[in-house]
């Protein structure tokens, strides 16, 4: 990691947060021989993450990358994190998500992409970009510039025992026939009905 070695032998310590981090690679660090389950790198000035940065910590369950300056995610960045359940990417500078970026996250249940630069005009979100995350329960896309949301944003065959949340609060979503797929969802609440909260440009779907 630049001229410094990142020491994660004691995961609870946060000494690494004192560095002005702009690029991250975990290659050659002793932490890679340990079973690290949670990694928090939030609140740095992290702008770039090497594609193989997390290849030595496949047992990771929670990854916090929020409140940084990340503007690009390599397609293979998360490819071996098949046990990851929580991914925090809010408060970054992401203009788009490349196809296949999250395909390796088969155990993911919670993802937050709020407060980035995602927009419908630039086709920021590819169709079915979370297609492999069949256990996903919570998706947060708040405070972006999304006018439309594809029906394939979530896996099409979720467990019917789960209630899922798709949050689009603070987006200029156009409420037209393109949102008909929301009405066709099979709801899993106790009353077998969907709850829609519309307030000006704010949308929250729980189904």
The first-to-last residue Cα distance is 42 Å
Low-pLDDT sequence parts: 1-19, 186-202
- What is the percentage of strand-forming residues? 15-25%
CATH topology: Leucine-rich repeat, LRR (right-handed beta-alpha superhelix)
**Amount of helix:** under 10%
Radius of gyration: 18 Å
Strands of the widest sheet, in order across it, are 2-4-5-6-7-8-10-9
The topology string of helices and strands comes to EEEEEEEEHEE
CATH level-four homologous superfamily name: Ribonuclease Inhibitor
Total number of domains: 1
The overall strand count is 10
- The first-level CATH class name: Alpha Beta
Q: Under the CATH scheme, which architecture would be assigned?
A: Alpha-Beta Horseshoe
Q: Report the mean per-residue pLDDT as an integer.
A: 75
Number of helices: 1
Q: Which structural class fits the helix and strand makeup?
A: mainly beta
Q: Specify the overall morphology.
A: globular
Specify the biggest β-sheet. Answer: 8 strands, mixed
Structure commentary:
The structure is a single chain. Helices cover 2% and strands 15% of the residues. It has an 8-stranded mixed beta sheet with strand order 2-4-5-6-7-8-10-9, with no helix packed on it. It is globular, with a radius of gyration of 18 Å. By secondary structure, the protein is an all-beta fold. It has one helix at 180-183; strands at residues 23-24, 38-40, 48-49, 62-64, 86-88, 110-112, 138-140, 165-167, 195-199, 202-206. Mean pLDDT is 75; it is low at 1-19 and 186-202. The longest helix is centred in the last third of the chain and has 4 residues, at 180-183.
């Amino acid at each position: 990691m630049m001229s410094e070695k990142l020491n994660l032998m004691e995961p609870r310590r946060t000494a690494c947060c004192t560095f002005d981090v702009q690029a991250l690679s975990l290659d050659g660090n002793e932490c890679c021989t340990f079973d690290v389950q949670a990694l928090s790198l939030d609140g740095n000035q992290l702008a770039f993450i090497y594609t193989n940065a997390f290849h030595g910590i496949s047992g990771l369950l929670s990854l916090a990358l929020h409140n940084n300056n990340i503007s690009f995610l390599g397609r293979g960045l998360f490819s071996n994190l098949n046990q990851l359940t929580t991914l925090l990417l809010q408060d970054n500078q992401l203009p788009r998500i490349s196809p296949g970026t999250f395909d390796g996250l088969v155990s993911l249940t919670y993802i937050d992409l709020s407060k980035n630069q995602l927009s419908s005009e630039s086709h920021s979100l590819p169709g079915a970009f979370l297609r492999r995350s069949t256990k996903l329960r919570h998706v947060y896309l708040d405070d972006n510039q999304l006018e439309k949301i594809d029906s394939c944003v979530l896996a099409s065959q979720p467990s019917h025992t789960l209630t899922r949340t798709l949050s689009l609060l603070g987006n200029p979503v156009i409420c037209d026939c393109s949102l008909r797929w929301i009405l066709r969802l099979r709801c899993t609440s106790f009353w077998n009905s969907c709850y829609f909260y519309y307030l000006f440009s704010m949308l929250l779907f729980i189904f």
